[in-house]
Amino acid sequence: MNGSHSMLRKAAIRWAGGLALLAALGACSQATQKIAVQEPGPDTACSLDGMILNDYAGPKAQLHYKEGKPDFFCDLTELFSVVLLPEQKRAIAAMYVQDMGKADWEHPQGNWIDAKTAYYVVGSRKHGSMGPTFGSFSSMQDAEAFAHREGGKILRFEQINADMVNARGGAAHDTSH
Question: Is this prediction's pTM over 0.90?
Fold first, then answer.
């Protein structure tokens, strides 16, 4: 009986361990579950000014909140002007920008990347819907090639500040060189 009891105990421990592992894996996948990118439709309008995204050149952006529908932006300076506002209190779940190392500047489609991991070229000669704008890239090499060709400097997400995107100055008036 002692041997049988020992076998049952070992089986119960294995079963409990298996359940704990499954629970941990389930929690892990929920914590790292990614918010799906939404491809804007032909009539998708900018959340700030109502401009149709497809009507303008340059990278677009989308901002997903923990609750509610995503906001779309026809220019990266608009995304940053919203995200960097001290009044911005809504919980942000995800931000995406287009990888201009893969997308066509004049008519960008798809190629969405996480805004927080992108490389940004600030102060280039390229324009978006609101005039001078940022270029966004998934790789440093693409950002460097763009900056060499079009001018500007390379920054990471956390290096961009409100003075670089304000309505009076915008991307063209960045003085933090």
Answer: no
